[in-house]
């Protein structure tokens, strides 16, 4: 999707908005939706993220309805806290007038957290993985990352890419 959808969108003459909706509906994985839409443009990213999150939120009533219909009488319906926080924040943003400065800070923070989340998803990190990290292993990993980063930058410089 990351490589083919933007080309397809440009070939079909899709607007940023249309491409955002297209990607959000056609791509399953949220991180792939974000990456693909971002490669097409900022507005496509905004639309795709909103549509994908809306699509994902529909899983809440579906999960609750399914658990009520299928589960035993003693079964508990559990909704993750981040979903409740997201719904609460959405309701507050719809009802309250939020200062522009606070929206800017929230927007920047959300981008940083999204990048961090995608980083950890890509590495398949779990809480247990992070808790098990020891100083020496972490330093070793950071040194290897630094070498890979430095080597890539040197290769790009030598090839005249920047």
What is the strand and helix layout of this fold?
Blueprint lengths: L4 H7 L4 H11 L3 H11 L1 H16 L1 H12 L10 H15 L4 H23 L4 H6 L2 H24 L4
Task: Explain what you see.
The protein is built from 9 helices and no strands. The model has no long low-confidence stretch (mean pLDDT 81). Helix 2 packs antiparallel against helix 3 (30-40), helix 2 packs parallel to helix 4 and helix 3 packs antiparallel against helix 4 (42-57). Helix content is 77%, strand content 0%. By secondary structure, it is mostly helical.
Give a quick summary of the entry.
The protein is mainly alpha-helical. The protein has helices at residues 5-11, 16-26, 30-40, 42-57, 59-70, 81-95, 100-122, 127-132, 135-158.
Main attributes?
162 residues; mainly alpha; 9 helices; 77% helix; 0% strand
Q: What pattern of helices and strands is seen along the backbone?
A: HHHHHHHHH
| Helix proportion | over 70%
Instruction: Identify low-pLDDT runs.
Output: none
Query: What does the largest sheet look like?
Result: none
The percent range for strand residues is under 5%
**N- to C-terminal distance:** 27 Å
Helix tally equals 9
- Helix and strand content put the structural class at mainly alpha
| Average pLDDT for all residues | 81
Strand tally is 0
Shape: globular
Radius of gyration: 20 Å
